[in-house]
Model the fold of this input.
Amino acid sequence: MIDKFQIEICAGSLSDLLTADAFDEVDRVEFNSALELGGLTPSYGSFLQAREKSKKRIICMVRPRAAGFVYNEDEKNTMFRDAQLFLDAGADGIVFGFLNPDHTVDEETTAKMVSLIHGYGKEAVFHKAFDETPDPFQAAQTLINLGVQRILTSGQKADVIAGIDLLTKLQNAYGSQIEILPGGGVKADNIVALLDTTGCMQFHMSAKETRNDSGSYPAVSADNIRKVLVNLQAALHQENTLTREDQDMLRNDSFENIDWNDEDERP
Done:
């Protein structure tokens, strides 16, 4: 029976974070900059304002550049300094990812980052660098062994619907040992199918819309958050009032009617 879901909003600015902050049902915010590049380290000044204004748990991204996740020593040092600044200033966790040149998990650097984060009693989250690993099951086990609390993933596909099979397998295999956080194209018209199919109880979404200011940029939409919450709450009510036979029948029907070609940009 569904009893609690969690929503994480991917915020690319202070404005995005404050939009998410207005919703009691939003559990936490992943704080970034440059969502159009997949999310980079936010400025320290923007984080200080976010921490002063928001009551939510804030997980800070440390990612010094776009493209891949194989970093040189200077880039790694920058990431560790940023992480320590954020943790000292009240971040509730750090989201990061380190890969070796063969795209396996960089265990040594990951272990050091986990140690830093856990030294503050905060959450260590491995982001979508996971989706570039050659063996996701081995990568998940490695991250479990290193003490990472959560993996953000779209199931090694362009979006969560395309990756729903792997998401389900990861949740079934490792969900009791590490949190599997589906993210990438999560929205109102697919979130209930994700909930029912994968068994995951938390979701990462940008809830974005396009805005314009001498050019376009993505921003968190309160209306998109609201639509997701309405659908999830309806699913929760349905699970808690229908018989098990009715629940199974409706799950099967909704699964068969999914538009599997529906795509969204990755947050």
Notes: The first helix runs from residue 14 to 21. The beta strands are 6-11, 26-31, 57-61, 93-96, 123-126, 150-153, 179-182, 202-205, 208-212, 216-220. The radius of gyration is 18 Å. The chain is about 40% helix and 20% strand.
